[in-house]
Amino acid sequence: MATTPERWVQGSNPYNWADDAQDPRRALARPVGEKETLANYLKHYRITLELKCEGLDAAQMARRSVPPSTMSLLGLVRHMAQVENHWFERVLKQQPDVRQIYDTPEDNDGDFNGAVADPAVVDEAWSTWRDRVASADAWLDALPEEDLGTTVPRRGEQVAVRDVLVHMIEEYARHLGHADLLRESIDGRVGQ
User: Fold this and answer.
1) Which residues neighbour 83 within 8 Å (Cβ) at sequence distance 6 or greater?
2) Hey, which end of the chain has fewer CB within 10 Å, N or C?
3) What is the Cα–Cα distance from 62 to 81, expressed in whole angstroms?
4) Tens digits of per-residue pLDDT, 99-121?
5) What is the pTM of this model?
6) CB 65 within 8 Å of CB 191
7) What is the pLDDT of residue 16?
8) Which CATH architecture fits 6-187?
């Protein structure tokens, strides 16, 4: 098993990459109300995805997990951009004509299959993900808290805004578990 380099063991918690006071997620503490709580959990997990990928080059970002899996940290960034796009643009904003970002009818795993060790691909993935996150945040910021129960059609059913937000939190949480293992296999870095 890889050991954690000494330079990563800082602060009061030996599993954190930075001192607790410098953790960018601390600013999200103590939300007020349901909307702010859901938004803060979502932001927390988005920041964690960035932390998990911090300091890696294109080859490390594209490194696949265990064959035959196509999963990589770069693939996860691309996948989450696509998830943000689907749930916020296509479902919540009711813009069904917004195209999928990476998947096509010929390759419905394009987010992972196209995650190759090319700095331009990495830059594009982060740019797309950040753009989709900014669009989602702008929409959510403008949503009145009392509208969390509003429903929108999806695949012949109605889905509440709050359910979509909880699903987004779940989606990030699930994939950050994958990111933990991927990052540890690259350089032994764990925690945070």
Assistant:
1) 168, 171
2) N
3) 16
4) 889 988 899 999 999 999 999 99
5) 0.86
6) no
7) 53
8) Up-down Bundle (1.20)
Phi, psi of 61 (to 5 degrees): -60, -35
Q: How confident is the model at residue 30 (pLDDT cuts 50, 70, 90)?
A: confident
Give the pair of three-digit tokens for residue 115: 């995650």
Which among 93, 60, 166 has a CA at the least distance from the CA of 85?
Answer: 93
DSSP letter, residue 153? E
| Cα angle: 168, vertex 41, 124; to 5 degrees | 60
Query: What pLDDT is stored for residue 10 in this prediction?
Result: 46
What's the whole-number mean pLDDT along residues 162-180?
96
As given in the structure block, the two tokens for residue 66 are 């265990």
- What does the alpha-carbon distance between residue 148 and residue 39 come to, in Å, rounded to a whole number? 11
62, 117 in Cβ contact below 8 A? yes
Residues shown for the chain: 192
Residue 155 neighbours by CB distance under 10 Å: 6
Average of per-residue pLDDT values in the chain:
88
Amino acid letter at 131? D
